[in-house]
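Throughout our pipeline, every protein is held as a single compact record rather than as scattered files. Such a record has a labelled line for the sequence and another for the backbone structure tokens. The remainder of this section carries one protein's record, kept here as part of the documentation:
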Amino acid sequence: MAGRTHSEQDPPAAASGDTAGAARDEPSAPLPGEQGSTTIADSVVNKVAGIAAREVPGVYQLGGSAARALGNVSERVGLGDVQGQGVSVEVGERQAAVDLILVVEYGESIPRIAEQVRSQVIKRVEGITGLEVTEVNIAIDDLHFPGDDDHETVFEETRVS
């Protein structure tokens, strides 16, 4: 996807809590309109894609193991926003490309989950932002097994007396 050009009149974007660090917070080039233009920050597309992916049954979590660990710590101390974790986007003037890292529930069909996530992300990003989604690349990083969370809870409870 080609790089974006910005005029000096582009508004500054607010800082994002993107723990993956892949999304930029600069606004995309304006979407033309008859009575003005609309700019959409990369972090907005990032959050929409992350929320859309989590809406699919069988998706346990987003992000690689290191990003999830860092995200959990950041969230506990109130610094993190996990909505964009495991998501990176590239936003152009009228198009967006999305990369996702997923953890899938054990026993689910990975090809079916990937196709449902891809469809949901395209539907939500295009519907909410008006940008055409050119691709959604999905990497399955891990499987979540039933009972994995129970072990973590017991471990946390026994560390503090």
User: Anything to note?
Assistant: Residues 40-159 form a domain with the Alpha-Beta Plaits fold (CATH 3.30.70.1350). Confidence is low (pLDDT under 50) at residues 1-24, 67-71. The chain has one domain: 40-159. The longest strand covers residues 132-144.
